[in-house]
Design goal:
Radius of gyration: 20 Å
Largest sheet: none
Structural class: mainly alpha
Number of helices: 5
Length: 154
């Protein structure tokens, strides 16, 4: 729990940095030379651009904190990979979906939610599969090294 809290505190500024990096990328792609700090519907809902930016700053930080804190799940040696994956996915879903809704990163319709959640699942699955393959390869190399070391000794 202590590790999750520490990571969460470090994750807040990381979430803000990622959020701003995304707005810069979107602005470069679709801004026509202007900086687009928040989606127009969020600006309208908040009453001003600065209020929208402040809300998005806070929400991005909370998302970063939840993501970083959730990463501590992977260090629980007593849980199965399936249980860790489910709990981690649940934590990220419970953080991401309400924040995406509040920040107007998705249309406020059932269909908008379904599309956003589907994209979230696909991205989560891709990242999970890539990380699984990377760690599997690292573990295989470690095991191969141990086997070679033991063979030289014995």
């Amino acid at each position: 729990m202590k590790k999750a809290i520490e990571r969460g505190l470090l994750g807040f500024p990381l979430g803000v940095a990622i959020g701003y990096t995304i707005t810069i990328g979107i602005s470069m792609a679709a801004g026509g030379g202007d900086y687009l700090p928040a989606v127009p519907s969020l600006v309208a809902k908040c009453g001003s651009e600065i209020n929208a930016v402040i809300l998005q700053f806070i929400l991005s930080g909370i998302l970063g904190a939840a993501s970083a804190a959730g990463s501590a799940i992977w260090e629980n040696d007593r849980w199965s990979l399936l249980k860790m994956t489910f709990v981690h996915f649940l934590i990220l879903s419970l953080a991401m979906l309400p924040i995406a809704y509040l920040a107007h990163w998705m249309p406020h319709t059932l269909w908008g939610f379904v599309i956003y959640f589907t994209i979230f699942i696909v991205i989560y699955a891709i990242i999970w599969a890539v990380l699984y393959a990377v760690w599997r390869r690292k573990i295989k190399r470690l095991n191969d090294g141990i086997m070679k070391h033991n063979q030289r000794k014995g």
